[in-house]
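subagent[fold] <- orchestrator: predict structure for attached chain, return tokens only, no commentary.
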Amino acid sequence: MFNHFRRPVFAVLAAASILSFGSSIAYAQDKVVVPVDTTNLPAQKVGVDDLLMVRVYDSPDLTRTIRVSADGTIRLPMLKTTIPVVGMLPVEIEKTVADALRRDGLLVDPFVTVSVAEYHSRPISVNGAVKTPVIFQAVGRVRLLDALARANGLATDAGGELIVTRPNGDTGSQSVSRVPVKALYEGTDPQLNLVLVGGEEIRVPTIGSVVVSGNVREPGVYPVQDSGTTTVMTAIAQARGLADYQPKIVYILRPDDQGTRHEIPVDLESILKRKKDDVVLQAKDLLYVPLNNRAKVTQQAINALTGSAQSAGTALIYVKGR
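subagent[fold] -> orchestrator:
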């Protein structure tokens, strides 16, 4: 009798086991968390406003994307307190979250992974004389030339140096670096290609200009070349040289920080005879070459020249005769 019913009983038990196993599969499938499709960003220290993907396996209610709040913390449901995360690597946040879940009695042995879905705490700004001003996040290894490439390179009116402003840690102060464009692109000094970590502003000033007016063949607004290379003589040369008269003295009208213009006499005759050094010009200088030694630059003429130069975004130099 026992042998007679042994096979059916075994079959029933086997079927029950299969059904039970099937239910556990279905239950397990209900617990599977489909991961959010996030960009595989390199691990860097987390900052305010970054978007984190926190996965707690077998706990779909705790798995979510969380943005770091202004106070540098994140909050998971059912946890009693927020979790500070600013300045931590994702792997460090994993341990902190797991410890918090264990401490509050939510999970006995939580398995947590943390990745960065979006960085928003590492902005780099590139503006000024570039083709496409841009703000982007410093993700991975970013250098100064990379940032300029993001802005599609320099514009045609870019000056001879870059101004890079960067924060000094948590002190709230900033440091300013001036980087010569020519040396940067030529690669003569690799240290000029600064490493950027976020928070930097790269400003590309437009090239400075001077106005040359008066007794020259082509009066106009001319660019100031690399520092120290634009002089009274080169400015006159840009204006196609003197016209029909050569004055002995020229004067530079140069504004100070308060906008007051000061006269600087230049002995053009001695420069031409190589008895004196040429005089370097600066942006926002005005040059006026008089028609004769008795010619004077009137205040009305100065105002007119100054106004035309300012409308062109330049500085002026003027020359007057004796």
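orchestrator: received. Logging for downstream: Residues 1-39, 311-322 have pLDDT under 50 and may be disordered. The first helix runs from residue 2 to 31.
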